[in-house]
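Predict the 3D structure for this chain.
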Amino acid sequence: MLKAICNKSVTLLFALLICGFQPVSAQIAPTNTATVSGSVTDSAGRPLANAKVSLAGPKNVLTQTDVQGLFVFIGVPFGAYRLSAATANLGTASRGITVEGDMNVAIHYEPMSQNGLKVIANVSSNVNAQFNVQPASITQVDPIANALDGQTSWRKILEQIPGIAQAGLGSGNAPEAVLPDGPLMPMQISINGALPYETATLLDDMPLIESSLNATAGSGTDLGVYALNGFNSADVVRGPGANAPSIVDSIGGSFVLHAPGAVNQDRYVLSLSNDPYGGIVANALAAVRWKKLSTVVTYGVNDSPGPVNNGVVMARGLSPMTIDGESFSCTGSCASGNINAPGYADYISSIGAYGGLLACCVNTSTAWSQHSGSIALIYAPSPEISAELYYTGLNSQQGITYANTPFYFTPPPGYTGSIPAGQNIFSLNSTLLGGPFPSSQGSHLLEEKISVQLGRGILHLAALQNRAFGTYSTSIPSSASLHLFGGGALCSNTSLPCDGTNPTYTPTTFNGEMYNLTTGLPLSYSFSTSSSNRDFLLSYDTTLGENFHTGVSFVKSYYNIPIEFPYQCGSFTFNLISIPSAVSQTTNEMRFFVGGNPSEKTSLDLSMYFVNANYHVQDPNNMAYYTDARYSYAAPRLGFVWRPTVAVAVRAAAGGGFAEAPLYDLVGSNSGISIDCISAPTYYSQTLTNLNLRPETSFAFDVGTDIRLRKDTTLSFDIYRSNLYGQFYKSTSLTGTYTGAYGTLPLYTTQYGNLGESRYEGILLDLRHDALHGIYWALSGGLTRGYLVSVPAGFYNTAYCQNCANLYVVPGPNFNGEYTVGASIPYSQALGTIGYRWNTEKYLDLVGTYFGNNNTYLRPAFAEIDGHIGYPLTKNASVLVTFRNITGIYDGAEQLYSGANLSGAPTVSGPLYPLYGEMYGPRTIIVTTMIHM
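Done. Predicted structure below.
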């Protein structure tokens, strides 16, 4: 029976448990190493010099504290230890700790009557200031804790780390992104200047790759589709870390997510918050330990009305063809003016007797609902085996209303309608008759993992299934009955133009009566995307004596993005985007590594990576056939840390990187299509596959130091540079004509190619004072820039860019990537914090974030300030009050529709330039009540 089960089992989780492994020894040998540092103080908080501190466990080590009471152990293998401290007058006491990563430990002698030590380790409230002793610069964040504090997106977490950009805001080009912290806002991370597709997002060394509604398909992981409350911790690993689990798509660094780990004691938490728009945010966590099984379950709900509900909307970009059977025309433009645009005051000049049109009332709700959660099961039937099953999922529902642009209504002459002068109204682009577009987006992520002792090392097996999905659709009918306000022209004789030359031209003012409108052409389209990402991991690492370790790992990743985008305009039907499910991308990466401690003051790590990537795409010469494009790459990475004293660490890392062309960019759309419908089409466009598009490669270095000025004050400094070879760029040119549904029209051809050499470089500085009691403060900042070093020969006049300026590449002080919109790199960024803490739950602070020029909000340099008050209500309940955007900078719930192509045709000489910037978000107060047991 067992044999049959073993033969048929397909899940990693249960196959090894049922079939079994014969243990080699009584305990799994630890193979990963960490640094354990900390301080020893007496009962009054004074530092104790020359105290003997020891660790007993898989590795036995002994050291003494310095004059500031500080100590450090480097190269400590993971495992369970007994931590002991001894002084001549206070005696010896010890506590058990578990080393699962770098630790800052505060050892505090209790009064003699209590006879012992108080050991505080890994306290998120920063008992000891962060002190990095890894070759790469690493910043750790806590997604679950942020969710329990009432956060609903990754935005705040990312923007408060200097040098980390959110490159997926889209600046309004993605209509779903116009609502600050809305569930469909894309969140694509950019580390140290690298673009999103050059920044890997990993779970247990396996890449998360997906496509979402708003982030360009394949151009980087959209964190917005993953549950914030699903991950226990996340590491921002900058630069070419020698211990980096992968060099694939890791030019700037990696964002490494971690599932909840083993539970030592039961814990239950429930938090309730409001959101800026009057919605409800709730999160719950249950962590339970039952014998050999650990379980962590989280669940979160975010239900909100959003910033806009039923109201007056403006007929912008979709003027009616007829009103009550008579032809209609604006004498000028029916498009509205913008009160925030240069040259406009607090009025709309186009809403007059002969221009502009208001309609009421269309359902304009921006309400959303998001449900997310996770479950982690860890089962250890013996010390030699542990099995983990982890699932996290998210589902968001929202009605897309496109651009919620605020306007103020100025009545036209003779107006007698019911809308008061100065009424705040909303211009909802192209949705006058269609209303909000129903949309959904989410993900399902399942991981199975087995860890087994084999000899002196540990074998890890893991499988990951990662699926993201998104849909939206709309149907604008050919007629509707609405209340009209404003002015225009009616023409009873439709055989003549309704432009003022028609003798039957009749200026008309509408005062709110009901009219029957027709739009001429019905318009409908739907968009759906569903990416499939499957990974497999096999690794083995083992110790070499007392001070070294070595190992090998293999990761296989598969990804495809079937997309359909049918678009109907009148009697014509187009498929704007069509990527068959057979189109795919596969990557294999092998890593060999060795590292350890040549001396008590140094550590050295060396990794060698071998990568091959394969694209399976349609043959550009015959779309009925498929072809493969294969690429290989190999590169080393080296890391070094020198500890001249326990209070100083000097770090260095250098090595290569590899970034694949986003699959969507490589595939393109190889059939001529019209990209216009409402007005008469003027051109066709085509995106070609380029099977000669080679991957980007890089060589980067990061040099830094951490200095502990006092036991609670640290200084960190880093300088980095990444030389990037063959960066991708987009080239568009007029290549001839194409005959299609609308006849013979000009054909614009787009294709991706490789640049010569580009460069990202910058500096980072962090100074912080952390305290369990009293004043704490921090000041950090970063300067980042990117620029072109060289371009390939013939770059400005190639077969794919004839007479083309190629201004998609901007060789300025900041390198903006393919588009100015949505891919910018903050040149400067800073964060300042000052607060006072009575204990871990009772504190107040102010946090200011500075965004320099060229920020992702497309605004001039500005600063935003938040405030926090934490207060315990009872032993098991506390409240957190968050004051968001205290100064009201770029306050607003309604967004400007920022992106636009002013010419109405593909730009051959440059990118799509934004008209306006993003709103930062409304000034508001968030109250979170937390109950914990």
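The longest strand covers residues 622-645.
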